[in-house]
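Milestone M4 deliverable, item 7.
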Amino acid sequence: TGVAATPGNATATVIWDPPFTNGGSPIDRYDVSIAPTAGGAPQTRQITNLNALTAPFTGVTNGTQYTASVT
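Output delivered:
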């Protein structure tokens, strides 16, 4: 799936595309994480609204690069 993040002032919103296939198992949530690219503790959100396809994060440090993932 495609994953992108939109930055804000000390915030970020992660946006993703739904998977083409679920591998035969029903999807009941998305686990969305962001972490500083240079290292550091990730923030993780469990998204159970499967139609949302976005996850907001606060406490993001301005000027720091982050890596986002969705599983």
